[in-house]
Amino acid sequence: MWIERSESLGAAMNGIHLRILECGHAVAGRDWVGSPAAPSYARLYYICGGDGFLRAGGETIPLRPGCCYLLPAGFSFSHGCAVSMEQLYFHIRLPDETGVDLLRAVPGPLSDAPGLEKIRAMQPLLTSGSVGDALRLRQEVWASLLGMLDRAGIELNRPLHSRCVIDAAAYIREHLSLQLTIGELAAHTHVSERTLEKSFRAELGMTIGRCIDEEIFLRAESLLRGTDLPVSRISEELGFCDQFYFSRRFRARFGLSPQQYRRQRPI
Fold this sequence. Notes:
This protein is α+β, with helices and mostly antiparallel strands and 267 residues long. It has helices spanning 7-15, 116-127, 131-152, 163-174, 182-189, 193-204, 208-226, 231-237, 243-254, 258-264; strands at 19-28, 42-56, 59-62, 68-71, 78-93, 110-112.
C-alpha cells in the first residue's frame, strides 16, 4: 500500500474558518443611501432585484440582479438606489489561527454572476433554522468567494506562525482589553518582549498594539450591532478609561460615533 500524506494541507484547512458575523435579507427604498464606515469585515451582497449602485473612487458600480459583490474590509464607498433595492447580505471574515483576516489580500471590489435563480434559492436557507440548510448556505458563500478570487487571480497566503505568536494572539482574544501589555503577553508565551514584538512584525505585518486595536474595534462593532449594551458598558468591558475616550477613538477609526454607528446598522 502506498500513502502520501499532506500535513500542510490539513493544517491549512483546519486553521482557517469562514466567520459569518451577520447575514439577512434586506429590502429598501430610496432610504438606502449613505457612506458606510469602513468596518473590520468584508461585505458580500447577493442582488435579488432593484436598481442599487455603489460609488467609489469616482466610479459608479451598478448592482445588477443575479450578481453578487464582495466589498473587502476597509473599502470606502457610498451607496444608493433610484427606486428600490433587494439583496441578501453577509458580513464575513476569514481569519487564520492568529485572527488575521486573509481577505485583507483583496485590494478592491469583486463580482460574480451566480444567477437570480440560485440567489432566490439561497433566501429560504437564511430563515430555515436547520443545521443542514445553514451548512448549505455556508457552502454557497464559500463557492462565491473562491470563484471571485480565482477569476481575479488573487491567491490567499497563509504563512506559518511561530508558537509564541499563535499563543499571544489567542491570549489577546481571550483577555481582550486596551490595558493588555506586551509584558503580560511575553510572560504568557515565555519569550522576551523584544522577541515577541519582532515575531509579530515579521509574521503578521503589524505591531502588537495594532493587533490589540484591531481586535478591540472588531469586538466593539459586534457589541454595537448585536447587543443593546450602553456605550459606557462597552467601553468598560474593552478596558477604556472612560466612554468619551472610547467614543473619540471609535470616531477617529470609523468616522462615526458609537451611537451613530449603532443607529446606522450597516448592511
